[in-house]
Structures are given as C-alpha cells and as structure tokens.
Amino acid sequence: MNSRISFFSTQLFFVFFIISSSASFAQDQPYYLYDRGTGIPTSQFGSYVREGEIMIYPFYEYYNDKDFEYEPLDFGYGSKKELRGRYKAHEGLIFLGFGISDKLAVELEAGIITARLDKSSEDTSSMPSVLEESGLNDIEGQIRWRWNHENIDVPEFFNYFEFVFPTGKKNSLIGTSDWEFKLGAGLIKGFTWGTVTLRGAIDYTTNEKKLEVGEYAIEYLKRISSLFRIFIMIEGSEDEISLVPEFQWHINKNIIAKLATGIGLTSKATDFAPEFGIMFLVLL
User: Fold this and answer.
1) pLDDT of residue 169
2) In this structure, is residue 37 part of a structural domain?
3) Number of folded domains in the chain?
4) For the chain, what is the mean pLDDT?
5) pLDDT score of 46 more than 50
C-alpha cells in the first residue's frame, strides 16, 4: 500500500513540475511564442537562432530503406530501368548556424557517410551486387530571412535559399556531383495548443537545368515544460512523403538533446531514418 502511495505521489509531483515549469515560461512570452521563443527558424527541426547566437549541432543519422529506388545508369552501368534495392547508411554530420541580425541568419552543414546499396534481384545490368562507398557527403548552406515578427493576428513569414556544393563524383553513391539550389518560403503561427509551420520550395540543379517542385512540409511544435518539447512533421518531395517525430530535452538554456526518427509513409521515401544529436547555443 505504501509503495502505491509513493508511486502516485511521484507521478503527481512530476505532473505538477511540468505544469509549473510551463507556467513560469508562459509568463516570459506572449502565448504565440510559448513554444519557440523569438529566434529565426532554422532548417533543424523545431530550432530557432537568435541575433548574435551561434548554433552548433553535431549529430548522427542512420538510413535503412528496403525498397530504395535507383537506375543502374545512376552509377554508370548503362540501364535506365527503375529498380528497387536495399540501402543502408551511417552518417555523422555537423551543423552550424549564426543569427547575423534579428531578421537574417546563415547556416552550413556537412557530413561524412558510409553507404551500401544491395542491388535488386531483377537487376540484370553489370552493376556489382553490392555497392559500398564512404567519404564526404553533401555540403550545403542556407541563407534565411524573416520578413516580420508574429503578433496575435499575423503569422511570421520567412524565406530561405539553399545551395549544395558539388562534392561528389559523377555516378557516385554518395555526395552531389552538380550544384543544387533551393528557394523556399514559409509561415509560422503560434496557438495556445501549439505552433504550426507551413513551408514549400522549388529546386534547380545545374545538371538538369530546370525548375521543379521541391520539398513541402507541415510542422507542429509544442513546449510541454521548460525542459521538454515535442515536434511532429509531415514532409515530402514529389511522391516521397515521411513522418518525422522528434523529442527535445532542453538540458539548460544552452544545451539541447534531440532525438528524431524519419518514417517513410510512401514506398519511395526512406523507410527508417533515426537521428540523435546534442545542440549547443552560444550567445556572443
């Protein structure tokens, strides 16, 4: 009996702690900024950088896709037949962000990857049964601009311009062999029940020399206490659509532990892509 009383007392204390933490945070911000604060939105899930702040985020990502779509010609083996193989990869990345002003931020991200592709049983090309490569993956940067500050009636609007450097060899399993550009726009609105972000982009690659519809997403962020936030996103590009839930633990105002998992909702999306990292915020 005493153990049950102790258990329920602990649970009540935890609930009270969460509510009181949320209340104390609520006193510092208007309700529409409860979840995210005053920073500029970055490309990192549910993360915002303030003026004069440096964001440093080393993280690890794993990819597992049992029906990875490819053409042998992508890797220099002649056939243009679309096939499905099994893809696995481990990637270590570093993300850097800096709030130049209250409206302007810049980002840079780079990764080292080890990737493996097991070709389809229907693949009759001369491609090896297993392709494995490791080394430098994508290096990309972004410039992000906030047009206005959200208020009770008006959401915040922002734009971003992304560029991917050609770091990979042609027909390689890793990296990017041509310049890639992306121009995106979005809006953010905070409510008492959470913060919603809508965004979309158009893509351009120097290889194909044409504009295409790029990524699109709807995001939800909720601060459940001064320590914890949850983030849920549905993101897609053409017919590749994924669900991405993330849990954030704000260890203190300068250190955040982030755990996310990408889950493919369509066959062409990566089946499973968990990510974990520790984010550091340094205010200059």
Assistant:
1) 87
2) yes
3) 1
4) 91
5) yes
Residue 78: pLDDT band (50, 70, 90) is: confident
Per the domain annotation, does 9 fall within a domain?
no
Q: In which domain, by residue range, is 251 found?
A: 29-283
Structure-block tokens of residue 236? 């897609």
Q: What is the CATH number of the domain that holds 91?
A: 2.40.160.40
pLDDT band at 209 (very low <50, low <70, confident <90, very high): confident
Q: Has residue 3 been placed in a domain?
A: no
Q: How high is the pLDDT of residue 16? A: 43
For 176-200, what is each residue's pLDDT tens digit? 989 999 999 999 999 999 999 999 9
| Closest CA relative to residue 89, chosen from 119, 68, 117, 59 | 117
Residue with tokens 């309700």: 31
The Cα 106–Cα 246 span in angstroms is 23
1 pLDDT exceeds 80? no
Residue 105's nearest CA partner among 155, 140, 141, 58 is 141
Domain membership flag for residue 203: yes
Identity at 235, one-letter amino acid code? E
C-alpha span between 9 and 281 (Å, rounded):
35
Structure tokens at 63: 């990819």
Q: Measured between alpha carbons, how far is residue 215 from residues 32, 35, 239, 240, 268 in Å?
A: 26, 24, 10, 9, 14
Query: What DSSP line would sit under 31-83, residue for residue?
Result: GGGTTTTTSEE-SSTT-EE-TTEEEEEEEEEEEEEEEEEE-GGGGTSS----E
What does the alpha-carbon distance between residue 207 and residue 172 come to, in Å, rounded to a whole number?
15
Contact 242, 275 (CB under 8 A): no
Contacts of 77 (CB under 8 A, 6+ apart): 125, 126, 127
